[in-house]
Amino acid sequence: MPTCVSAVLEMLVEAEQAQLLRVQATNDRIREENEQLQDQIHDLRFHLQMKREIEGRRMRWLMSRHSHRLQGRMYHS
C-alpha cells in the first residue's frame, strides 16, 4: 500500500511541477510581450511629441510668413 500511495504522490508532484513550469513559461512570455509593448508605447509617444513640435514650428513659420506678407502689403499701400 505505501508503494501505491507514494507512486500517486510522486505523479501528483510531477504534475504540479509540470503545471508550474507551464505557468512560469506563460508568465515569461507575457512579461516579454509587455516589455515590447512598453517599448512601442515609448516610441509612439516620442514620435507623437516630435510630430507636435514640428507641426508647431511649421504653424509658427506659416503665421510669421503670413504676418510679413500683410505687413509688406500695408507698407506698400
Give Rg in angstroms. 33 Å
The count of domains is: 1
Q: How far apart are the first and last residues' alpha carbons, in Å?
A: 112 Å
* Share of helical residues: over 70%
Following the backbone from N to C, one meets helices and strands in this order, namely: H
Give average pLDDT, whole number: 92
Runs in which pLDDT lies below 50 for 5 or more consecutive residues are: none
**Largest sheet features:** none
Structural class: mainly alpha
Strand content: under 5%
* Silhouette: rod-shaped
* SS elements, strand count: 0
Q: How many H/I helical runs?
A: 1
Coiled coil: 13-47
Keywords: Coiled coil
Structure description:
The protein is an all-alpha fold and 77 residues long. The chain has one helix spanning 2-76. It has one domain (1-77). The longest helix has 75 residues, at 2-76. The termini are far apart. The mean pLDDT is 92. Residues 13-47 form a coiled coil. Keywords: Coiled coil.
Which descriptors would you attach to this protein?
single chain, 1 helix, coiled coil, mainly alpha, 77 residues
